[in-house]
Design goal:
The chain is of the alpha/beta class and 334 residues long. 44% of the residues lie in helices and 16% in strands.
């Protein structure tokens, strides 16, 4: 493999001069620069990104840490991060933390050793000591959804609370008289805020009871088991607000298996806006997050930080949109 020393020898200059040409860092006269470029072309030398990173502490790479790559929400988010990063000349590395704090910590350590330029965290296990470690190593980062308590960070998120209210109001408007909620893990802020939005909207109705809320763990199988448990508890439920679309698909599957018609007997509304909600029958009403915009904004903020721009550490909250579909089609007989 051709090395930088081979290029230096052929062009009659030092390795440090070749390095200045490659990194466009420091003065090199035009004649010398041309010799170096001709030697690079003749030897077909390709600079090693890691080796260049060791010298410049910049490798042109950023990382995206995801909690669960099997949830279709996150590949859609990753698509935006990659598109925007490439437009700025960056390559993206992906990691799947499985919502395990130890696994996330190991990723941070590996990425630090590889001189990654910055990290976007879309996981839910980032801790204060992780933030301290990132800052001590001068690794820029942006957080999706939430930052550790007491830490000022750049955070990009959706308005989950209002989105939940929007979903429940929609179910009420279409004629549902007893609405339940299947929620995600309560150690995740998005799940907690969606449950809160549900409770705040229905707490004053005479039919409300805490037993109308069932955990589904943000998973398809969790949605399936939660729907079965819910309908056994409350067979008169006629509307379900589901805390994410993946669970909503599971809810729909279980209801249909139980012989319960959607939306004639039970209306279903999800949250996220993933494409999977259009691939089932009936298509599922959802409160759509601006998934692409979330990923794009997080990436732009991170690249600004990498380039030394003084980015204010604040929360950037984007609005959500209700997309009504057949799973909540209004029963005109009501």
């Amino acid at each position: 493999m051709t090395t930088i020393r081979d290029v230096a020898k052929l062009s009659g200059v030092s390795a440090s001069t070749v390095s200045r040409v490659l990194n466009k860092n420091g003065y090199v006269n035009q004649e010398t620069e041309q010799k170096v470029k001709q030697a690079i072309q003749k030897l077909q030398y390709e600079p090693n990104a890691v080796a260049r990173g060791l010298a410049s502490k910049k490798t042109g790479t950023i990382a995206l840490i995801l909690p669960n790559i099997t949830n279709p929400f996150f590949p859609e988010l990753a698509r935006a991060v990659e598109d925007v990063a490439r437009s700025y000349g960056y390559t993206v590395l992906f990691g799947n933390s499985d919502d395990q704090g130890d696994k996330e910590k190991s990723y941070i350590e590996v990425l630090k050793q590889r001189y990654v330029d910055g990290i976007i965290f879309s996981s839910h296990t980032l801790q204060r000591d992780d933030v301290v470690r990132l800052r001590s190593n001068k690794i820029p980062f942006v957080v999706l959804d939430r930052a550790p308590a007491g830490e000022a960070c750049s955070v990009v998120r959706s308005n989950n609370l209002e989105g939940a209210r929007m979903a429940v109001r929609h179910l009420l408007d279409r004629g549902s008289r007893k609405i339940a909620h299947i929620y995600g893990p309560q150690d995740i802020l998005t799940a907690k805020e969606r449950l809160r939005g549900y409770e705040e909207t229905v707490k004053d109705f005479g039919w409300y009871t805490p037993t109308l809320m069932v955990p589904g763990n943000f998973r398809l199988d969790g949605g399936m088991s939660a729907a079965k448990e819910l309908m056994q508890r409350h067979p008169d439920v006629d509307g379900i607000f589901v805390g994410n679309d993946l669970m909503a698909v599971g809810v729909l599957k279980t209801l249909l298996r139980m012989g319960i018609k959607v939306p004639e007997q039970v209306a279903v509304c999800g949250f996220d806006g993933i494409h999977l909600t259009e691939a089932v029958e009936p298509e599922i009403t959802t409160v759509a997050q601006p998934i692409y915009e979330l990923g794009a904004l997080a990436t732009k903020l991170l690249i600004q930080k990498v380039n030394g721009v003084d980015v204010e550490n604040k929360v950037h909250e984007l609005e959500v949109t209700l997309i009504p579909r057949d799973s909540t089609r209004k029963d005109t007989s009501l």
